[in-house]
Design goal:
Distance between the termini: 14 Å
Radius of gyration: 15 Å
Low-confidence stretches: none
Shape: globular
Structural class: alpha/beta
Number of helices: 6
Order of helices and strands: EHHEEHHEHH
Strand order of the largest sheet: 2-3-1-4
Number of strands: 4
Largest sheet: 4 strands, mixed
Strand content: 15-25%
Number of domains: 1
Oligomer: single chain
Amino acid sequence: MHIIYHDIGGSHSSVVASYIHLNKLPTDRIPSPKEIIDVPMFDRLERDQIGRLIFHGVDEYGNKVYTLSRLNYEHPMLNAIKSIPEMVGLDEKEVVFVNTTPSVNFLMQLGGGSSRKLKMVTFGRPIVAYGTTKAYGDIVDIVNKTKLKIAPS
């Protein structure tokens, strides 16, 4: 199975969700902003990676975990990607899309926008990391619900 965590920027909530999913970030405590900043790909997505699936690893069930920056085009982007399994002979049910945008708070938007759009990384990255610590419980909830949905019966 392929699990795709997606959000507008593809660099914050979706990346953190993928690392929680892969058991590389804790579910029993909130990591420090430094731990979040140290996550590969956190606040580091390049312009040419927008709209591409970024592979992060394989979970304990053998599922491949990805992130996707879909900008504000959730419906057309996901429709396009949902057509791919049929093209390559996979069952549509083998691809699970998980929207992490509901976990994004104002600090994440402010910091992420400053860092990614305005290229003010030293200003924005600490803010988005701090905002992520505030949203962390919501991100863990999204991942836990996803894992329950995909767990082998």
